[in-house]
Specification:
By secondary structure, the chain is of the alpha/beta class. It has helices at about 10-15, 20-25, 60-75, 90-105, 115-125, 150-165, 180-195, 220-230, 245-255, 290-300, 325-330, 330-345; strands at about 45-50, 80-85, 110, 130-135, 145-150, 170-180, 200-210, 235-240, 260-265, 280-285, 305-310, 320. It is about 40% helix and about 20% strand. Helix 6 (about 150-165) runs parallel beside helix 7 (about 180-195) and helix 6 (about 150-165) packs antiparallel against helix 12 (about 330-345). The chain is globular, with a radius of gyration of 20 Å.
Length: about 350
């Protein structure tokens, strides 16, 4: 990755704690823009994303966004650029990063994660002809801002159903990376799904860090330690919504011979987690890649998206992956999940967004 966009690689070092070298070894640059200072003058369409805590290689949220960027590069023939976060960065750092990407002519510029909201609000005003995308946030709006959001609680409800049906101990665990409203949606849906399926089930819930400390999304050792604690407490299915830190929870569950439920990406198919895949029961997927691709396509087509763009179960914007053959063989589990999905879409079940 060229230095102008590849600002730092924090998170990749952390990934080595729990992932194989393939977690970052398979990276390739998607920044195909010119390295000269005149790149902003190019007439070729160019799109950029700025990653969230953990960066590309997290096998989860950021990698899902990258998949959308990569698809746009291949199918839409657009140039692409990426920018990594820095550890302990300030809002000013985010503003500078987004400003740099916009100044170079990238359109759209997409912030991966709600933490970019204040910075996008500032930078979007300076570049009114550039479309800015913000994933997982609706608090900052504007004529050139697209708020790409998901019904995470719906997918998490399905995970709760699957966890309750697959558990043999009647105790399951939820691990949130950072205790913020977005992650509480995951917790709320999961706990509701568990309890609606088995009222006698016990849910152990924990958060790795509290704001303003967002390292709970980036440190696998924290996820691993939390999962071990829940396993010791009798949990035999653990669902972690913790970005890169979730890989530690997956490792712990696998080592104990128990089930893990992945998040954001289909983690059963993530190369960096291949060692643990047989113990990844399923994953709550958010089609972040589709959201990124759709926004880039809308800009290229001359009809840029703006305002709230929501993805839920009804549009397969969130889902429960069935890549693991062991999961598909659990017909009682899959039948319960499909019924719950149908009931949510039909509005027979209203999923909570707060615990």
């Amino acid at each position: 990755m060229r230095r102008i966009t590849r600002i730092a690689t924090v998170g990749i070092a952390s990934a080595a704690l729990a992932l194989s070298a393939t977690a970052c070894g398979g990276k390739k640059s998607s920044d195909s823009s010119s390295s000269s200072s005149s790149s902003s003058e190019s007439k070729a369409a160019s799109a950029a994303i700025a990653y969230d805590v953990g960066g590309r290689g997290d096998q989860s949220f950021n990698d899902a966004a990258y998949a959308g960027l990569e698809k746009a590069e291949k199918e839409l023939k657009v140039k692409t650029a990426e920018a990594e976060p820095t550890e302990g960065e300030s809002e000013a750092d985010k503003v500078q990063r987004l400003t740099e990407l916009a100044r170079k002519g990238n359109n759209p510029v997409i912030g991966v994660g709600f933490s970019y909201a204040p910075a996008i609000e500032k930078v979007a005003k300076k570049f009114p002809k550039t479309t800015f995308g913000i994933i997982d946030d609706t608090s900052k709006t504007g004529a050139n801002i697209a708020n790409l959001v998901f019904n995470e609680e719906q997918g998490s409800y399905l995970a709760g159903v699957a966890a309750a049906k697959a558990s043999k101990t009647g105790t399951v665990g939820f691990i949130g990376g950072v205790e913020v409203p977005l992650i509480k949606k995951f917790q709320a849906g999961f706990e509701q799904g568990v309890k609606d399926t088995n009222p006698n089930a016990k849910v152990l819930s924990a958060y790795l860090t509290q704001p303003p400390d967002f390292s709970g999304f980036a440190k696998p050792d924290l996820g691993k330690a939390a999962a071990k604690g829940q396993l010791d407490g009798g949990a035999d299915v653990i669902y972690a919504a913790a970005g890169l830190a979730g890989s530690g929870a997956i490792e712990a569950a696998s080592s104990a011979g128990k089930w893990a439920i992945g998040v954001d990406s289909d983690q059963y198919n993530q190369p960096g987690l291949a060692k643990y895949k047989d113990h990844i029961l399923t994953s709550v997927t958010k089609d972040v890649s589709l959201a990124v691709f759709d926004l880039i396509k809308s800009v290229k087509d001359g009809k840029p998206e703006s305002g709230e763009v929501r993805y839920g179960l009804d549009k397969n914007g969130v889902a429960l992956a069935d890549s693991n053959p062991q999961y598909k063989a659990m017909t009682d589990v899959t039948a319960a999940v499909e019924k719950a999905k149908a009931d949510i879409i039909a509005k027979k079940i209203t999923v909570k967004t707060t615990p």
